[in-house]
Amino acid sequence: AESTHPDCSIILLVQEQESHCLAKIREEISDSTEPTDLQHRGCLSEWDGVNCWSSDSIGETVAVSCPDIEGLFKKSN
């Protein structure tokens, strides 16, 4: 059976995470009834090219872990 090259696996993982994040962002935007709702809510979720940062209220801090790519490099028997 063929397996995906680790370089491609990383790209596929990041693309999948980006897709989920962008869907989350679209949902947050569509849940807001007025443009001012977005301004007073704090920060929306944001995709930075590697991670999805969750939305947050004004004055709060968000932290994210590095992407979990370790498993992509483990060889399976």
Automatic annotation (TrEMBL):
Highest rank taxon of the organism: Eukaryota
Domain G-protein coupled receptors family 2 profile: 20-77
Signal peptide residues on this chain, from the entry's feature table: none
Gene Ontology terms, MF aspect: G protein-coupled receptor activity
Annotated PROSITE patterns: G_PROTEIN_RECEP_F2_3
InterPro entries: GPCR_2_extracell_dom_sf (IPR036445), GPCR_2_extracellular_dom (IPR001879)
Gene3D superfamilies for this protein: GPCR, family 2, extracellular hormone receptor domain (4.10.1240.10)
Pfam families named among the record's database cross-references: HRM (PF02793)
Record-level GO cellular component terms: membrane
Protein name per its UniProtKB record: G-protein coupled receptors family 2 profile 1 domain-containing protein
Species of provenance: Pleurodeles waltl
